[in-house]
Specification:
Two copies of one chain form a homodimer.
Chain A: H1 16-29, E1 43-46, H2 60-72, H3 85-89, H4 93-98, H5 100-112, H6 117-130, H7 146-157, E2 161-169, H8 170-181, E3 188-200, E4 203-214, H9 220-228, E5 235-238, H10 244-251, E6 259-266, E7 273-274, H11 285-293, E8 296-299, H12 300-303
Parallel strand pairs in A: 1-2, 1-5, 2-3, 5-6, 6-8
Antiparallel strand pairs in A: 3-4, 6-7
Protein name (chains A, B): Phosphoserine phosphatase
InterPro entries (chains A, B): HAD-like_SerB, HAD-like_sf, HAD_sf
Keywords (chains A, B): Hydrolase, Magnesium, Metal-binding
């Protein structure tokens, strides 16, 4: 195939998937057209894990949690005999899984709370600079999908404001989303823990508490969107059942042109292949809903010329 | 005085107050200068009640609550004998005040919850279109301070992103802040109640619940700023003790140029004069903190040529 394409979305193969995106953008930006949307209302929301970057073999944030437990372990000798910490220190992910959400919540409490927001930002930034993915041997911030980076840029070039709406931690993402995705901190929506305002030696800080504030997943996504953005998106992009309600909120029962897209992981060779069977990124109801609601489904293997910038 | 001024902030009198604003903006925008701040970090946060529009003789949102109780009363004959509703229906604000925050919370529950977010937006919009302030006989959206509108525009013209951070209801403000202040919904931070996501006849809605989610006042303001914006403002504008922590968060213990400003209501003739004595907009600690921290204090009577656009 000749690589002569110079239009937008160069890493997308020609075909109905790419055409559906270009058609939608053309319709909402056509001045005087029947589907025209003023720029300030061109709100697009993107899931992060599995939609903008890799979420296998585990969420990147979980890799961060596990690494942090190991870093903190010397200060907590009791963890050797205390679950779920012992499971992490022994590298026994099956044992860890047996502790379920409660186990992960305990790990999040000791790794995400008990410091100021500025300190947490520094910890995340330093970890991302040195941590490497086991399979690709690269920083996680390189494991972002090149076609999706092009899509973000393409939408912004057409007057859209792009937001991330993720089940992941809002303060885990904000330190790097502007550099990697071009999405500034104020356009990131995510899960959060509570904070407490304090003055320390005439300097104000926000201290992170081991208490969940908001879970930005499933039906939480429309709620998070409403809280942070205050209007309904006209386009939403996800990859799993956790994104179902966000895609509904963006596309159903509303007038005008609307666009929903689901990234289907079908490429075991270049990335991963998973959906209904997977614990991560389970795509069960959302895939059926896509057919019903005419959401675009990306077949990664067929629709993307390359997956990563280094491909 | 000759009205020949053509620079920015035409409704501000010349003097140290105006000079402090212009100097700050000049410093952070001077390319290559020692205080230069990149545009994406030029975050400015504004309180609303008493800072951008009138908050006397009561918060506009409280006037909305009282009007809504009267509108809903025919469907609630029992309110005639039930407090705090009877106090509202009898126009007895003293009796209402005796019920304190709990009384107001009851009124908010029946006037702000029990409908979808879209329905609430419609109610607010229709109310603002018809309600009139008792003293000025004008829509509340005309009782915004002309010098502050100019300040918002001046900051934006210099690359700032302007946010509202108010103790008022976030969904009470969003329907009109873009038209009146040029601040879009996604740049409004405020107090909120919880919502529930539902599908109704294939249409998604968010249903407003009679349960407080977040109070964006005092120490809540830095928390709300962190949640919605994700970085510290370099400038903050308020008028009362409710804004103290926001001004601290924007200006103290941080490097570079920072700017804090407090609007002091000193003009009983053209607007109102109040501070330490007032229930609304109490300015007790914040006024002392302004002197200590070199925040600019606006003397409305002296510093503003006109207060409203219709002056």
């Amino acid at each position: 195939m000749a690589q002569t394409q110079t239009g937008p979305l160069p890493s997308w193969n020609e075909g109905p998937t790419k055409a559906s995106i270009v058609d939608f953008v053309a319709r909402v930006t056509e001045s005087g057209g029947p589907y025209f949307v003023p720029p300030d209302q061109r709100i697009a929301t993107f899931d992060n894990d599995g939609t903008l970057w890799v979420e296998q073999p585990m969420y990147v944030q979980l890799a961060f949690v596990l690494d942090r437990v190991k870093v903190l372990a010397p200060m907590h000798p009791e963890w050797k005999d205390k679950q779920p910490f012992a499971a992490v220190l022994n590298g026994d992910l099956k044992a860890l899984a047996a502790f379920g959400e409660k186990g992960v919540a305990e790990l999040v409490a000791v790794t995400h709370a008990g410091m100021t927001t500025a300190e947490f930002e520094k910890i995340v930034t330093e970890w991302l600079a040195t941590a490497r993915d086991g399979r690709f041997k690269r920083p996680y911030t390189e494991l972002v999908y090149q076609p999706m980076l092009e899509l973000l840029a393409y939408l912004r070039a057409n007057g859209f404001k792009t937001f991330i709406v993720s089940g992941g931690g809002i303060e885990f993402m904000r330190p790097w989303t502007e550099t990697i995705y071009g999405v500034p901190p104020e356009q990131v929506v995510g899960s959060s823990i509570k904070t407490r305002y304090e003055m320390r030696d005439s300097t104000p800080v926000l201290f992170r508490l081991p208490e969940v504030d908001f879970i930005d997943d499933k039906a939480g996504k429309p709620i998070g969107i409403n809280s942070h953005i205050g209007r309904r998106p006209i386009a939403a992009f996800g990859n799993s059942d956790g994104d179902l309600e966000m895609l509904q909120w963006a596309t159903l029962g509303a007038s005008g042109a609307r666009f929903g897209l689901i990234v289907h992981h079908t490429d075991a060779e270049r990335e991963y292949a998973y959906d209904r069977q997977s614990h991560f990124g389970k795509l069960d109801v959302a895939l059926d809903a896509a057919a019903l609601n005419r959401w675009t489904v990306v077949d990664m293997r067929k629709d993307w010329k390359r997956i990563f910038s280094f491909d």
